[in-house]
Amino acid sequence: MPTTSKTDLATLPSAYDHHAAQAKWYPFWEEKGYFHADPAPVLKGDKKPYSVVIPPPNVTGALHLGHALNNTLQDILCRRKRMEGYEVLWMPGTDHAGIATQAVVERRLLQEEKLSRHDLGREGLIDRIWQWKEQYEKRITGQLKQLGCSCDWQRQRFTLDDQCARAVRETFFKLFSDGKVYRGKRLVNWDTFLQTAVSDDEVFHEEVKGHFWSFHYPVVDPKAGEPTHVTIATTRPETMLGDTAVAVHPDPAGQLDKVEAELKEKLAAAPAKERPPIVAQIEALAERRKTHLPKLLQLRDMAKRGVQLTLPLAERTLPLIADEWAKPELGSGCVKITPAHDANDYEVYQRNESIGTINIMQPDGKLNDSVPEKYRGLTMPQARKAVIADLTEAGFHDPESDVEDRLIDLAHSDRSKTPIEPYLADQWFVKMDVLAQSAMDAVTSGDVSIVPERYGKSYLDWLGEKRDWPVGRQLWWGHRIPVWRKDGAKSVCLLDDSEAQKVEKDGFTHDEEVLDTWFSSALWPFSTMGWPDQTDLLKAFYPTSVLVTSRDIITLWVARMVLMGKYLLDEIPFPEVYIHPKILDGFGETMSKSKGNGVDPLDVIDQFGADALRFGIAYLTTETQDVRLPVEFVCPHCQGTINQTKQNRVQPRIVCSHCDKPFSTQWAEKDEDLALPRGPVTSERFELGRNFCNKLWNASRFALGNLQDYKPRAIGPDELRIEDRWLLSRLATVTGEVSTSLDEYRFADAARALYDFAWNEFCSFYLEMTKARFAQAGPDKQVAQAVLADALDTLLRLLHPMAPFLTEEVWQLLAEVAPLRGLTAAVEGTESICVAPWPVSDAAAIDPTIEEQFAKFQAVLGAVREVRQGLGIPSKESLNFAVDCDEETENLIKPMQPYFTQMAKANAVELGPDSALSEFSSIKSISGFNTPITVHVGVKAFIKIEAEKARLAKEQANLTKFTGALRGKLGNEKFVANAPAEVVEGEKAKLAEAETQLAAVAAALAKLG
RNA sequence: GGGCGCGUAGCUCAGUUGGUUAGAGCGCUUGCUUGACAUGCAAGAGGUCACAGAUUCGAGUUCUGUCGUGCCCA
């Protein structure tokens, strides 16, 4: 709370106390209601709206640094816009994440209580998942608050709450009524352990050792001269029981020509050393024409004629068909087709529907009644053994010659870690043709722009396929599909449960399935605002202003929000999508809880502070690169750090390599491990942010101390000294840079501009220089105080979005010593920096001449310091120096004399053309101003002849090389003729400057002998 | 296989439309108990800008190819 009594500045700690600031200011902001958005002023036209919906974190687990980055960036945007006077709505909430959450809870249930979901039943399991959700939602909310996020917590939503459920139901009803929902067959990724379909992004691929078996199917009634059997090969022999065709290419000769032409093209382009293998391939292809082509042509003709093959073991026949999926250049050239259990084969079926599909699997992964009795009830591995044995015995397979080893890329379920079975199932689909097109149009027309632009391509490519969206999931956790079905009757979709009882009396049953999580997420930008009701919130804040997210859900989420917004509200959900980088660990892997490399933002916040984390994140958020963050454990005993490795990141306990004491990690489960203190995981990258915050804290302490007797008064322009004007000029420039950078989502540029300004200009120069002015009361001190108060005020406001707690803490302290500030008119600071006006760059203050002149002063100061350090002259020894320079430079430097004394303990005893010292001096030339400046530093007894000679010789060598290069350039007629005149003139000036310096160095060397 | 990135100092990264002798933080070396700050101050060492070509008076920056690496899609 803002204190009513004045703080004793002497008691302020010498290091920024982030714990205290965070504990104090977040509750204050919430109590004041700064984060609560009010639609009224927007609807009245008094304020412009700015709204953002949070990408809802899923309630499966706690947030990691990736989320911290996502939310920090949103908060920076929101806080900045709030300061600019917009009515800001940042809508928070969480996602129910269907399968992920159900899987986590089920796994836990099995581990801890040895219960399956069937033991609890649908209602029981859902109850348990709600409990889990409550726990994690609370944790996530807490994390976001610790991070300082300025969300409108009074409006927090959950994708499965009543309001979102209503939007989901309304949407499904509309889709159903419009005929955009249908039920169809589709090959899904079946998890036989969880007995549900999983989406493509819940599948991971892993290579496993397997085999490639060949066997043959007899031809039914071959004509004379025709093959009597067809050879096919497969990695999954057991699926032959579900075969419905064998395919041969419709134009094997043409296909071979095509492949050969491609190989030749590749050969022509290949470097010599890569040619032999390509030549070998071409030769093999030629050989294949002789050995295989005649037979393939025969088979192709037989396929056209409608020849049947006998399917061994299954006592049925299947057709030989012509289809391009068969590759004449590979294997036998023929391929078996199992549409119900292979994605490619299913596509063949779609082109040749007459072959039909046969599903041979039950939901539990065992063979069903479509296969001969002896195989029924076998698991896939069991069936594989039996099929091979039986084929061998029947003479269709020779285990000696017809099998080879092969690595197989096998899909696994991310949820159960068991192999996926492709499985043909009835599914609910949403027709995507029109909807996808509308979402594509939104981006191609520019109504929605994606930043950086390149991500627009993956968005358009994906939507361009217009694949229908399978929306059903065989789960219990989610929005239940509002459809009631009855055999032989038309299904009904009900908007209201009151009608359900009626239809159920008529024998209709409620569909068991729930909707894909992304179905509810797609409605998020407006379901959270009360749609389908036309609420004030929706009227004021929809469409939102920007969506901030990471690239992996552009297709799953962003595209679907766009098409749903257009479909339901006839308006895009946001005009801009900003795609930010991802956080990777030191090995370049994305962070995840399951991998063990996830970092809890609270660990970082505890150690370095929320401001440090946020500033560090902004500093790292560049446009093109992901953020690589080497991660380390911090020993709770000795605070030593231990680098995280792929080995130790999954261990429940680690022994500290510094103090040999053990500590526990997030994997600790056994009591003996849990009893140990936990070692947090952080990254030393955030030291940058912490150090910066501390620097700013101390600069503020210094400023506050020197403002104790500050009295606001208007400062005339002629009262400003050169360093005042310089600082105000730089501040105006930086203000402009920060605003522009944030407008363009260049967070790193904004952070770097502020870091450099605050540290290297405000602290290192302005504060150092004003020390002398504060030492003596008078008008000069008053001017310095006014400039200091104004500059600090502006700097705090610029930094507030990135470092909210620190800036608020200082803002409140500044209000105590300088409640009124401003150079021309005294303005009272706002009660919180959250609602202080965002700085506007004062173009009139920008003075490039002052900035360049000041740079000369800095360069001379640097030269003196360099000589002192180079010769090891103790800092308490006072030095004299002279500056040989033109009159303009002389006039500039003259008034800075006190600052040389103060900042380098050196006296400028002579300035201007041909200045030098009578005492023995070391020289240092300064380049870059297109006028020679040479500094002569009197070095008294400290000269080390040999070291000085070496230093000068090195400088001479550099200058000789440089002048040589410049002469060469200027001697090049083409350069002089083609380069712009100002470039040529610049090079000439540089040469003149360097030659003067070279002469000075040579003279100094000669003097040393 | 297709698409999109990335490869710059020991590490993590900046480097606008081609035009100073390529920068920062960390780490390293040297010196500082200097009245805001050792989470600091001053200075220093450290780079064939992955490689090979091309365009240009001029390339870290543009183009082509190669290698390495990562992500997405199939």
UniProtKB/TrEMBL annotation:
One of its GO terms (molecular function) is aminoacyl-tRNA deacylase activity. Residues 945-1009 form the Valyl-tRNA synthetase tRNA-binding arm domain. Gene3D superfamilies: HUPs, Isoleucyl-tRNA Synthetase, Domain 1, Valyl-tRNA synthetase, C-terminal domain, Valyl/Leucyl/Isoleucyl-tRNA synthetase, editing domain. A motif ('HIGH' region) lies at residues 57-67. It catalyses: tRNA(Val) + L-valine + ATP = L-valyl-tRNA(Val) + AMP + diphosphate. The keyword Cell wall biogenesis/degradation does not apply. The keyword Cytoplasm applies. Residues 24-629 form the Aminoacyl-tRNA synthetase class Ia domain. Keywords: Aminoacyl-tRNA synthetase, ATP-binding, Coiled coil, Cytoplasm, Ligase, Nucleotide-binding, Protein biosynthesis. GO terms for biological process: valyl-tRNA aminoacylation. ATP binds at K593. Residues 724-879 form the Methionyl/Valyl/Leucyl/Isoleucyl-tRNA synthetase anticodon-binding domain. Its EC number is 6.1.1.9. It holds the Pfam family tRNA-synt_1. SUPFAM superfamilies: Anticodon-binding domain of a subclass of class I aminoacyl-tRNA synthetases, Nucleotidylyl transferase, tRNA-binding arm, ValRS/IleRS/LeuRS editing domain. Signal peptide: none annotated. Its main location: cytoplasm. One of its GO terms (cellular component) is cytosol. It is found in: Cytoplasm. Monomer. ValRS has two distinct active sites: one for aminoacylation and one for editing. The misactivated threonine is translocated from the active site to the editing site. The C-terminal coiled-coil domain is crucial for aminoacylation activity. Belongs to the class-I aminoacyl-tRNA synthetase family. ValS type 1 subfamily. Catalyzes the attachment of valine to tRNA(Val). As ValRS can inadvertently accommodate and process structurally similar amino acids such as threonine, to avoid such errors, it has a 'posttransfer' editing activity that hydrolyzes mischarged Thr-tRNA(Val) in a tRNA-dependent manner. This is Valine--tRNA ligase. It comes from Botrimarina hoheduenensis.
